[in-house]
């Protein structure tokens, strides 16, 4: 199936359809083993559908998103969640990806003014230069909580697992099972935290050449289009409440079940020391010491 990967995403819709039928049949045949690997049953295309294609990548059904000078592409989860762990494997654009942004994020629906959002954005770069993993968290419509990380591997060489863990006490971002970011629920200290609006997962590939790469100095080389990023093994696991508790939001405040374990704490410390390249909480130029966001002094 390799030649298909190299084909422009704008290959004729008819071809696309017959491939899908074929792959659908294939997926049906092995459905018993593939319940969680079936991307198509979990997600739907939102825009740029003609620039996407599903294909079997090893044992998994994968989705390719592509971007050309006219449009990118985007999918979202069919379901909305309130407290969940979402894992997805992503293989980023190979070679020169300057100006492109590949994302996986969760966001609540209307009203926008008070929306919640958890963002992972992979900012492309020129060949040989590292991607930046840009993260942000909005609660009650307010974001500005950017943290950026370098990855400790080449994210274009293979799939890696990126996860969002959202429970009543923490939002964690994990890479290959290692926690790199924690946003703690400090509502009792007056810091908003997403606790009541359900969110959907989105994945997208789009162009942000005016700011993404080296502050926008490096533009996209459109002669290399289409740019293609791959997603597979989307796995959303609802937060499971303790026995006798109706849902995770009802866990008693005294419950310790969402407390971070030693490994998570050690991973967070490691990521902060070695992989973090920007932290809004230490941006003295942007925030006057007196106006640092409140959570920065709490965690
Ligand atoms: C999905 O994620 C959950 C929670 O991490 C895990 O227990 C489960 O094994 C995963 N399912 C698959 C098919 O990977
Ligand atoms: C791209 O590479 C340059 C040089 O290594 C680096 O400064 C920059 O942070 C990288 N990422 C982006 C998104 O510009
Ligand atoms: C930062 O705080 C100092 C002292 O409170 C004040 O004089 C200065 O104008 C502030 N600067 C900005 C950019 O808010």
Automatic annotation (TrEMBL):
<keyword id="KW-1015">Disulfide bond</keyword>
<dbReference type="Pfam" id="PF00722">
    <property type="entry name" value="Glyco_hydro_16"/>
</dbReference>
<comment type="function">
    <text>Catalyzes xyloglucan endohydrolysis (XEH) and/or endotransglycosylation (XET). Cleaves and religates xyloglucan polymers, an essential constituent of the primary cell wall, and thereby participates in cell wall construction of growing tissues.</text>
</comment>
<dbReference type="GO" id="GO:0016762">
    <property type="term" value="F:xyloglucan:xyloglucosyl transferase activity"/>
</dbReference>
<dbReference type="GO" id="GO:0042546">
    <property type="term" value="P:cell wall biogenesis"/>
</dbReference>
<keyword id="KW-0808">Transferase</keyword>
<dbReference type="GO" id="GO:0010411">
    <property type="term" value="P:xyloglucan metabolic process"/>
</dbReference>
<feature type="domain" description="GH16">
    <location>
        <begin position="5"/>
        <end position="231"/>
    </location>
</feature>
<dbReference type="GO" id="GO:0071555">
    <property type="term" value="P:cell wall organization"/>
</dbReference>
<dbReference type="GO" id="GO:0048046">
    <property type="term" value="C:apoplast"/>
</dbReference>
<dbReference type="GO" id="GO:0004553">
    <property type="term" value="F:hydrolase activity, hydrolyzing O-glycosyl compounds"/>
</dbReference>
<comment type="similarity">
    <text>Belongs to the glycosyl hydrolase 16 family.</text>
</comment>
<keyword id="KW-0325">Glycoprotein</keyword>
<dbReference type="InterPro" id="IPR008263">
    <property type="entry name" value="GH16_AS"/>
</dbReference>
<protein>
    <recommendedName>
        <fullName>Xyloglucan endotransglucosylase/hydrolase</fullName>
        <ecNumber>2.4.1.207</ecNumber>
    </recommendedName>
</protein>
<keyword id="KW-0961">Cell wall biogenesis/degradation</keyword>
<dbReference type="InterPro" id="IPR016455">
    <property type="entry name" value="XTH"/>
</dbReference>
<dbReference type="InterPro" id="IPR044791">
    <property type="entry name" value="Beta-glucanase/XTH"/>
</dbReference>
<keyword id="KW-0732">Signal</keyword>
<dbReference type="InterPro" id="IPR000757">
    <property type="entry name" value="Beta-glucanase-like"/>
</dbReference>
<keyword id="KW-0378">Hydrolase</keyword>
<dbReference type="InterPro" id="IPR010713">
    <property type="entry name" value="XET_C"/>
</dbReference>
<feature type="signal peptide">
    <location>
        <begin position="1"/>
        <end position="37"/>
    </location>
</feature>
<keyword id="KW-0052">Apoplast</keyword>
<keyword id="KW-0964">Secreted</keyword>
<keyword id="KW-0134">Cell wall</keyword>
<dbReference type="Pfam" id="PF06955">
    <property type="entry name" value="XET_C"/>
</dbReference>
<keyword id="KW-0326">Glycosidase</keyword>
């Amino acid at each position: 199936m390799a030649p298909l990967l190299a084909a422009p995403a704008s290959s004729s819709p008819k071809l696309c359809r017959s491939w899908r039928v074929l792959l659908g049949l294939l997926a049906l045949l092995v459905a018993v083993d593939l319940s969680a690997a079936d991307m198509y049953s979990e997600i739907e295309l939102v825009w740029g559908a003609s620039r996407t294609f599903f294909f079997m990548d090893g044992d998994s059904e994968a989705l390719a998103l592509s971007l050309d000078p006219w449009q990118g592409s985007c999918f979202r989860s069919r379901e909305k969640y309130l407290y969940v762990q979402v894992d997805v494997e992503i293989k980023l654009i190979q070679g020169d990806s300057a100006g492109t942004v590949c994302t996986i994020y969760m966001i609540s629906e209307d009203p926008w003014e008070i929306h919640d959002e958890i963002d992972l954005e992979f900012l492309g770069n020129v060949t040989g230069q590292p991607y930046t993993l840009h993260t942000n968290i909005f609660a009650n419509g307010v974001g500005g909580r950017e943290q950026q990380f370098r990855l400790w591997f080449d994210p274009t060489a293979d799939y890696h697992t990126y996860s969002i863990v959202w429970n009543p006490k923490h939002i964690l971002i994990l890479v290959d099972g290692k926690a790199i970011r924690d946003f703690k629920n400090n509502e009792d200290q007056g810091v908003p935290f997403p606790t009541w609006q359900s969110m959907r997962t989105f994945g997208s590939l789009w162009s942000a050449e005016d700011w993404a790469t080296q502050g926008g100095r490096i533009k996209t080389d459109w002669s290399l289009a289409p740019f293609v990023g791959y997603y597979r093994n989307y796995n959303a696991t609802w937060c499971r409440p303790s026995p006798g508790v109706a849902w995770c939001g009802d866990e008693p405040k005294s419950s310790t079940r969402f407390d971070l374990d030693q490994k998570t704490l050690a991973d967070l410390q490691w990521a902060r020391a070695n992989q973090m390249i920007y932290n809004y909480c230490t941006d003295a130029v942007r925030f006057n010491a007196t106006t640092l966001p409140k959570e920065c002094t709490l965690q």
